Protein backbone atom coordinates (compact mmCIF):
# COMPACT_ATOMS: atom_id res chain seq x y z
CA UNK A 1 0.00 0.00 0.00
CA UNK A 2 2.78 2.42 0.87
CA UNK A 3 4.58 1.75 -2.40
CA UNK A 4 1.43 2.22 -4.47
CA UNK A 5 0.58 5.42 -2.58
CA UNK A 6 3.94 7.00 -3.37
CA UNK A 7 5.38 6.96 0.16
CA UNK A 8 9.11 7.57 -0.26
CA UNK A 9 10.72 5.29 2.32
CA UNK A 10 10.40 2.72 5.07
CA UNK A 11 12.88 3.01 7.94
CA UNK A 12 12.91 0.29 10.62
CA UNK A 13 14.11 0.47 14.17
CA UNK A 14 17.11 -1.76 14.73
CA UNK A 15 16.33 -3.82 17.83
CA UNK A 16 17.77 -7.00 19.27
CA UNK A 17 15.85 -7.06 22.54
CA UNK A 18 12.46 -5.78 23.66
CA UNK A 19 11.42 -3.47 26.48
CA UNK A 20 9.74 -6.31 28.39
CA UNK A 21 6.45 -5.53 30.14
CA UNK A 22 3.23 -7.28 29.14
CA UNK A 23 3.79 -6.74 25.41
CA UNK A 24 7.62 -6.88 25.33
CA UNK A 25 7.51 -3.87 23.00
CA UNK A 26 10.01 -4.25 20.09
CA UNK A 27 10.84 -7.74 21.33
CA UNK A 28 9.72 -9.40 18.10
CA UNK A 29 11.57 -7.95 15.11
CA UNK A 30 13.52 -8.74 11.96
CA UNK A 31 17.19 -8.17 11.18
CA UNK A 32 16.94 -5.08 9.02
CA UNK A 33 19.39 -5.74 6.16
CA UNK A 34 17.60 -8.98 5.35
CA UNK A 35 14.24 -7.26 5.87
CA UNK A 36 15.16 -4.39 3.54
CA UNK A 37 16.24 -6.80 0.81
CA UNK A 38 12.90 -8.56 1.01
CA UNK A 39 10.99 -5.27 0.93
CA UNK A 40 12.99 -4.08 -2.08
CA UNK A 41 12.32 -7.33 -3.92
CA UNK A 42 8.59 -6.93 -3.28
CA UNK A 43 8.19 -3.28 -4.31
CA UNK A 44 8.88 -1.00 -7.27
CA UNK A 45 9.54 2.55 -6.05
CA UNK A 46 9.83 2.84 -2.28
CA UNK A 47 13.23 3.12 -0.55
CA UNK A 48 13.97 0.65 2.26
CA UNK A 49 16.60 1.39 4.89
CA UNK A 50 18.69 -1.04 6.86
CA UNK A 51 19.43 0.08 10.42
CA UNK A 52 22.97 -1.08 11.16
CA UNK A 53 24.72 -1.06 14.53
CA UNK A 54 28.40 -0.36 13.90
CA UNK A 55 29.94 -2.66 16.47
CA UNK A 56 27.89 -5.69 15.38
CA UNK A 57 28.79 -5.71 11.68
CA UNK A 58 32.22 -6.06 10.13
CA UNK A 59 32.39 -3.05 7.77
CA UNK A 60 33.55 -5.01 4.70
CA UNK A 61 30.87 -7.66 5.19
CA UNK A 62 28.27 -4.94 5.78
CA UNK A 63 29.38 -3.09 2.65
CA UNK A 64 28.82 -6.25 0.60
CA UNK A 65 25.46 -6.96 2.24
CA UNK A 66 24.25 -3.43 1.49
CA UNK A 67 25.42 -3.54 -2.12
CA UNK A 68 23.44 -6.77 -2.50
CA UNK A 69 20.29 -5.09 -1.17
CA UNK A 70 20.94 -2.03 -3.33
CA UNK A 71 21.13 -4.13 -6.50
CA UNK A 72 17.96 -6.01 -5.57
CA UNK A 73 16.23 -2.63 -5.24
CA UNK A 74 18.05 -1.06 -8.22
CA UNK A 75 19.35 1.82 -6.13
CA UNK A 76 16.57 2.04 -3.54
CA UNK A 77 18.50 0.88 -0.46
CA UNK A 78 19.37 3.35 2.31
CA UNK A 79 21.66 3.03 5.34
CA UNK A 80 20.64 4.15 8.83
CA UNK A 81 23.88 4.03 10.81
CA UNK A 82 23.76 3.63 14.61
CA UNK A 83 26.86 3.82 16.76
CA UNK A 84 25.10 2.21 19.71
CA UNK A 85 23.50 3.23 22.99
CA UNK A 86 21.48 0.33 24.45
CA UNK A 87 23.93 -1.52 26.69
CA UNK A 88 21.26 -4.09 27.59
CA UNK A 89 21.15 -5.24 23.97
CA UNK A 90 24.91 -5.26 23.53
CA UNK A 91 25.39 -7.26 26.73
CA UNK A 92 23.02 -9.88 25.28
CA UNK A 93 25.16 -10.04 22.15
CA UNK A 94 28.46 -10.25 24.03
CA UNK A 95 29.69 -6.89 22.74
CA UNK A 96 31.54 -4.42 24.95
CA UNK A 97 29.93 -1.10 24.07
CA UNK A 98 32.71 1.49 23.90
CA UNK A 99 32.69 4.71 25.89
CA UNK A 100 30.35 7.29 24.39
CA UNK A 101 32.75 9.38 22.33
CA UNK A 102 34.78 6.33 21.30
CA UNK A 103 31.65 4.84 19.72
CA UNK A 104 31.75 7.69 17.22
CA UNK A 105 35.48 7.24 16.66
CA UNK A 106 34.73 3.62 15.82
CA UNK A 107 31.77 4.71 13.71
CA UNK A 108 33.97 7.08 11.71
CA UNK A 109 36.44 4.31 10.89
CA UNK A 110 33.53 2.03 9.99
CA UNK A 111 31.92 4.50 7.59
CA UNK A 112 35.30 5.38 6.07
CA UNK A 113 35.88 1.71 5.21
CA UNK A 114 32.32 1.27 3.93
CA UNK A 115 32.49 4.27 1.60
CA UNK A 116 35.96 3.31 0.36
CA UNK A 117 34.69 -0.18 -0.41
CA UNK A 118 31.78 1.34 -2.32
CA UNK A 119 33.87 3.76 -4.36
CA UNK A 120 37.55 2.81 -4.64
CA UNK A 121 38.56 0.89 -7.77
CA UNK A 122 41.08 -1.73 -6.83
CA UNK A 123 42.30 -2.83 -3.39
CA UNK A 124 42.92 -0.43 -0.50
CA UNK A 125 44.38 -0.64 3.01
CA UNK A 126 43.02 0.98 6.16
CA UNK A 127 44.89 1.21 9.45
CA UNK A 128 42.78 2.50 12.35
CA UNK A 129 42.37 2.01 16.06
CA UNK A 130 39.29 -0.20 15.67
CA UNK A 131 39.74 -1.68 12.20
CA UNK A 132 42.70 -2.76 10.11
CA UNK A 133 42.00 -4.08 6.62
CA UNK A 134 44.43 -4.94 3.84
CA UNK A 135 43.98 -5.15 0.09
CA UNK A 136 40.25 -4.72 0.52
CA UNK A 137 37.91 -4.50 -2.44
CA UNK A 138 34.33 -5.46 -3.18
CA UNK A 139 32.52 -5.81 -6.46
CA UNK A 140 30.04 -4.97 -7.72
CA UNK A 141 29.77 -1.40 -6.49
CA UNK A 142 26.39 0.06 -5.46
CA UNK A 143 23.76 0.26 -8.17
CA UNK A 144 24.13 3.17 -10.55
CA UNK A 145 27.62 4.14 -9.44
CA UNK A 146 26.67 6.27 -6.42
CA UNK A 147 26.23 5.52 -2.72
CA UNK A 148 23.12 4.51 -0.81
CA UNK A 149 21.50 7.41 1.05
CA UNK A 150 22.92 7.61 4.59
CA UNK A 151 20.89 8.77 7.57
CA UNK A 152 22.05 9.12 11.15
CA UNK A 153 20.57 10.30 14.43
CA UNK A 154 22.52 12.40 16.88
CA UNK A 155 21.34 14.01 20.09
CA UNK A 156 24.59 14.60 21.97
CA UNK A 157 27.08 17.19 20.64
CA UNK A 158 29.41 14.36 19.55
CA UNK A 159 26.60 12.47 17.88
CA UNK A 160 25.35 15.55 16.05
CA UNK A 161 28.86 16.26 14.81
CA UNK A 162 29.18 12.69 13.53
CA UNK A 163 25.88 12.97 11.68
CA UNK A 164 26.79 16.37 10.23
CA UNK A 165 30.04 14.93 8.88
CA UNK A 166 28.65 11.72 7.38
CA UNK A 167 24.90 11.70 6.84
CA UNK A 168 22.84 12.83 3.87
CA UNK A 169 19.86 13.19 6.21
CA UNK A 170 20.22 13.93 9.92
CA UNK A 171 17.57 12.77 12.35
CA UNK A 172 16.40 15.02 15.16
CA UNK A 173 13.80 14.21 17.78
CA UNK A 174 11.22 16.92 18.41
CA UNK A 175 11.34 16.86 22.18
CA UNK A 176 8.93 19.59 23.23
CA UNK A 177 7.62 22.72 21.56
CA UNK A 178 7.36 23.07 17.78
CA UNK A 179 8.72 26.58 18.28
CA UNK A 180 12.15 25.07 18.94
CA UNK A 181 12.29 23.23 15.61
CA UNK A 182 13.53 26.08 13.34
CA UNK A 183 16.52 26.80 15.57
CA UNK A 184 17.36 23.12 15.86
CA UNK A 185 17.23 22.42 12.12
CA UNK A 186 19.19 25.58 11.36
CA UNK A 187 21.90 24.55 13.80
CA UNK A 188 22.13 21.06 12.31
CA UNK A 189 22.45 22.42 8.78
CA UNK A 190 25.08 24.87 9.98
CA UNK A 191 27.11 22.03 11.48
CA UNK A 192 26.99 20.18 8.16
CA UNK A 193 27.91 23.34 6.24
CA UNK A 194 31.08 23.55 8.32
CA UNK A 195 32.09 20.28 6.62
CA UNK A 196 31.12 21.70 3.22
CA UNK A 197 27.99 19.58 3.10
CA UNK A 198 24.33 20.33 2.34
CA UNK A 199 22.01 17.92 4.14
CA UNK A 200 18.37 17.31 4.93
CA UNK A 201 16.83 17.00 8.39
CA UNK A 202 14.07 14.56 9.28
CA UNK A 203 12.13 13.53 12.37
CA UNK A 204 9.56 10.97 13.45
CA UNK A 205 5.90 11.34 14.36
CA UNK A 206 3.15 9.13 15.77
CA UNK A 207 0.22 9.60 13.42
CA UNK A 208 -3.44 9.42 14.46
CA UNK A 209 -5.81 10.83 11.84
CA UNK A 210 -9.58 10.56 12.17
CA UNK A 211 -12.56 12.40 10.58
CA UNK A 212 -12.87 14.62 13.68
CA UNK A 213 -10.45 15.97 16.26
CA UNK A 214 -12.54 14.38 19.03
CA UNK A 215 -12.28 10.92 17.48
CA UNK A 216 -8.53 11.28 17.03
CA UNK A 217 -7.94 12.51 20.59
CA UNK A 218 -10.07 9.74 22.07
CA UNK A 219 -8.33 7.02 20.09
CA UNK A 220 -4.85 8.30 20.95
CA UNK A 221 -5.75 8.45 24.65
CA UNK A 222 -7.27 4.96 24.42
CA UNK A 223 -4.11 3.26 23.19
CA UNK A 224 -1.32 5.59 24.40
CA UNK A 225 -2.56 6.22 27.93
CA UNK A 226 -5.41 3.93 29.00
CA UNK A 227 -3.92 0.78 27.47
CA UNK A 228 -0.22 1.64 27.56
CA UNK A 229 2.15 -1.13 28.63
CA UNK A 230 3.34 0.79 31.67
CA UNK A 231 6.26 -1.48 32.50
CA UNK A 232 7.58 -1.31 28.94
CA UNK A 233 7.12 2.47 28.94
CA UNK A 234 9.13 2.82 32.16
CA UNK A 235 11.88 0.54 30.85
CA UNK A 236 12.04 2.60 27.67
CA UNK A 237 12.38 5.99 29.32
CA UNK A 238 14.82 4.73 31.97
CA UNK A 239 16.95 2.96 29.36
CA UNK A 240 17.06 6.10 27.21
CA UNK A 241 17.98 8.25 30.20
CA UNK A 242 15.21 10.78 29.63
CA UNK A 243 13.92 10.78 33.22
CA UNK A 244 16.72 13.03 34.41
CA UNK A 245 16.87 14.64 37.87
CA UNK A 246 14.86 17.85 38.08
CA UNK A 247 12.26 16.79 35.54
CA UNK A 248 8.74 17.91 36.44
CA UNK A 249 5.75 15.61 36.82
CA UNK A 250 4.12 17.24 33.82
CA UNK A 251 7.21 16.65 31.69
CA UNK A 252 7.43 13.03 32.86
CA UNK A 253 3.74 12.49 32.10
CA UNK A 254 4.29 13.83 28.57
CA UNK A 255 7.34 11.59 28.09
CA UNK A 256 5.34 8.54 29.18
CA UNK A 257 2.49 9.48 26.86
CA UNK A 258 4.87 9.80 23.90
CA UNK A 259 6.57 6.51 24.76
CA UNK A 260 3.23 4.74 24.87
CA UNK A 261 1.92 6.57 21.84
CA UNK A 262 4.78 6.04 19.41
CA UNK A 263 8.12 4.97 20.88
CA UNK A 264 8.87 8.57 21.89
CA UNK A 265 7.85 10.21 18.62
CA UNK A 266 5.98 13.51 18.42
CA UNK A 267 2.22 12.78 18.40
CA UNK A 268 0.38 14.33 15.45
CA UNK A 269 -3.26 13.74 16.36
CA UNK A 270 -6.31 15.21 14.68
CA UNK A 271 -8.57 15.47 11.67
CA UNK A 272 -6.98 15.64 8.19
CA UNK A 273 -6.84 19.44 8.09
CA UNK A 274 -5.16 19.65 11.49
CA UNK A 275 -2.68 16.92 10.58
CA UNK A 276 -1.73 18.78 7.39
CA UNK A 277 -1.34 22.05 9.28
CA UNK A 278 1.14 20.46 11.69
CA UNK A 279 3.08 18.81 8.87
CA UNK A 280 3.18 22.12 7.01
CA UNK A 281 4.54 23.87 10.11
CA UNK A 282 7.25 21.23 10.43
CA UNK A 283 8.17 21.65 6.77
CA UNK A 284 8.38 25.43 7.14
CA UNK A 285 10.55 24.89 10.23
CA UNK A 286 13.18 23.04 8.24
CA UNK A 287 12.07 19.41 8.46
CA UNK A 288 12.73 17.74 5.10
CA UNK A 289 10.99 14.41 5.73
CA UNK A 290 8.94 12.59 8.35
CA UNK A 291 9.01 8.97 9.44
CA UNK A 292 5.45 8.12 10.49
CA UNK A 293 4.26 5.44 12.86
CA UNK A 294 0.67 4.17 13.06
CA UNK A 295 -0.86 2.04 15.80
CA UNK A 296 -2.04 -0.32 13.04
CA UNK A 297 -0.64 0.31 9.55
CA UNK A 298 -3.07 -1.89 7.63
CA UNK A 299 -6.14 -0.37 9.26
CA UNK A 300 -5.03 3.27 9.58
CA UNK A 301 -2.86 4.01 6.55
CA UNK A 302 -5.68 3.93 3.94
CA UNK A 303 -7.53 6.85 5.57
CA UNK A 304 -4.28 8.85 5.78
CA UNK A 305 -3.55 8.01 2.14
CA UNK A 306 -7.00 9.07 0.93
CA UNK A 307 -7.48 12.20 3.05
CA UNK A 308 -4.05 13.59 3.98
CA UNK A 309 -1.86 12.94 0.93
CA UNK A 310 -4.16 14.89 -1.45
CA UNK A 311 -4.22 17.81 0.98
CA UNK A 312 -0.42 17.77 1.19
CA UNK A 313 -0.28 17.92 -2.61
CA UNK A 314 -2.63 20.90 -2.68
CA UNK A 315 -0.39 22.66 -0.14
CA UNK A 316 2.63 22.04 -2.37
CA UNK A 317 4.27 19.74 0.18
CA UNK A 318 4.19 16.70 -2.08
CA UNK A 319 3.93 15.96 -5.77
CA UNK A 320 1.23 13.66 -7.08
Number of helices: 12
What fraction strand? 15-25%
Backbone CA Rg: 20 Å
Task: Write down the overall mean pLDDT.
Answer: 93
Largest sheet: 8 strands, parallel
User: Would you identify the CATH architecture of the domain at 1-171?
Assistant: Alpha-Beta Barrel
Which structural category fits the helices and strands? alpha/beta
Strand element count: 10
CATH class of the domain at 1-171: Alpha Beta
Distance between the termini: 15 Å
The fold-level CATH name of the domain at 1-171 is TIM Barrel
The CATH superfamily title of the domain at 1-171: Luciferase-like domain
Helix and strand succession? HEHEHEHHEEEHEHEHHHEHEH
Percentage of residues assigned to helices = 40-55%
Low-confidence stretches: none
3D shape: globular
Can you describe this structure?
The chain is α/β, with parallel strands linked by helices. It has a domain at 1-171: TIM Barrel (Alpha-Beta Barrel). It contains twelve helices and ten strands. The strands form two sheets. Strands 1, 2, 3, 6, 7, 8, 9 and 10 form an eight-stranded parallel beta sheet that branches. Strands 4-5 form a two-stranded antiparallel ribbon. Helix 6 (157-166) links the parallel strand 6 (149-153) and strand 7. The longest helix has 20 residues, at 100-119. The two termini are 15 Å apart.
Amino acid sequence: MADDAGIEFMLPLGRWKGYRGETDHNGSNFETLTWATGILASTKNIMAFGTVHVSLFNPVVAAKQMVTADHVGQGRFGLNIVCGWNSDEFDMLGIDLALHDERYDQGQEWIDIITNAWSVDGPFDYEGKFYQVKRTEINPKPHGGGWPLIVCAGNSPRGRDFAARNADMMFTNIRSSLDEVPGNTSELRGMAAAYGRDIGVFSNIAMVCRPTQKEADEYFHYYAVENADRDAVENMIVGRGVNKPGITEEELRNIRMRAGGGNGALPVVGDPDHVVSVMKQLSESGISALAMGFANYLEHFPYFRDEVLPRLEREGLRTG
